[in-house]
């Protein structure tokens, strides 16, 4: 079957599936979903020549017949507890198959106001933002996510509020024995002036065979600050797509690290807009891939105002037949003088069959800026490997030590020790000594 026929068939299948959603329930989000669906029809299902999907093969996803969750799945409190990080036991939000589950969450005393999206959308300002975003969506999968969003959650932090401790958000996908299921969680964060919050998000699955297509928005007012870490730990036989929009106003700060273990197809899309002077962004990522696991990052950072700063550093360790890609562009708009931006991607290749693609890019329309970018692809440093062996380490242990050190330089930038400890025992476990 040709790629064109696969894409057309996929579009029809998703459109038919959307009719079932529309006919099954009335919703305050119906208008927003309709706008998103129209945009998806305009964008069409992406092919390999599409700018955003150059390094992805979505044929397997397109050929899969998904269904929608027909009833709330049952998840035990013990399972939830096993994925809550120490220090987050008193404040965490749980989404099950894309829908917020208050009964499994711990929100008592939380200094973040929570409101269903279907209720929050009645606010004219938020409604206008969401409508404009859906109408101008450039990512077919993000449009698809909004089109299938049956409910979302808006988290609001008031002006001058510093949320104590760390808030965890746990996304649990249950899978489905009868066949692949798709869900579309939607989360919106609104931070008031001089507010601060620390958030850890973790994605896990009870069974595989699901497609999680998540979208979230971070809207930061003047002087707001966010420390944010995402942990993607879905099973291999799942699809994980996400889009994260970040809007930074004057002197706001957003520091983020993404740690990915990969799935048969995982894709992270970041769209960041530094809208006013003094905005700061730090975006780091690390993935450790083996077998046929994949992780793809697509990033667009827009410097729209003077004196803003953005830093990116991504590292990938790739073994077996695994694949990674990084497609990142920093756009410095006209008038965004005194911009400071740097972008670095490092890849460590551990086999002859693995694959890494890198496409760092700068588009600069201002003349007083400091911008750099770069990418490296390499194997274990033979001299360092030999040196460690001369100090008594076996070849296997020396190789493991070097690969661990490569990944740890990013993992150690995470500001949550609990996450670091877990990643040292899970993500880095993939790097245990192998036959050389």
The tally of beta strands, per DSSP, is: 21
Strand content: 35-45%
**Helix fraction by DSSP (H/I, runs of at least 4):** 10-25%
Instruction: Figure out the total of helices.
Output: 10
Radius of gyration: 21 Å
Instruction: Tell me the major beta sheet.
Output: 11 strands, mixed
Uncertain spans: 1-6
Domain module tally? 2
Quick recap of the structure?
By secondary structure, this protein is of the alpha/beta class. The chain is built from 10 helices and 21 strands. It starts with a helix and ends in an 11-residue tail after the last helix.
Topology overview:
Elements: H1 3-24, H2 30-43, H3 59-62, E1 67-68, H4 77-82, E2 92-96, E3 99-100, E4 113-116, H5 117-120, H6 124-135, H7 140-147, E5 153-157, E6 167-173, E7 181-183, E8 186-191, E9 196-205, E10 210-220, E11 225-232, E12 239-248, E13 253-260, E14 265-274, E15 280-289, E16 294-303, E17 309-318, E18 323-332, E19 339-349, E20 355-364, E21 369-378, H8 382-390, H9 395-411, H10 417-425
Parallel strand pairs: 1-7, 2-6, 5-8, 6-9, 7-10, 8-10, 9-11, 10-12, 11-13, 12-14, 13-15, 14-16, 15-17, 16-18, 17-19, 18-20, 19-21
Antiparallel strand pairs: 2-3, 4-5
Structure description:
- The structure is a single chain.
- The chain has 436 residues and is an alpha/beta fold.
- It folds into 2 domains: 3-276, no CATH class; 384-436, no CATH class.
- The protein has helices at residues 3-24, 30-43, 59-62, 77-82, 117-120, 124-135, 140-147, 382-390, 395-411, 417-425; strands spanning 67-68, 92-96, 99-100, 113-116, 153-157, 167-173, 181-183, 186-191, 196-205, 210-220, 225-232, 239-248, 253-260, 265-274, 280-289, 294-303, 309-318, 323-332, 339-349, 355-364, 369-378.
- Strands 1, 4, 5, 7, 8, 10, 12, 14, 16, 18 and 20 form an 11-stranded mixed β-sheet that branches. Strands 3-2-6-9-11-13-15-17-19-21 form a 10-stranded mixed β-sheet, covered by helices on one side.
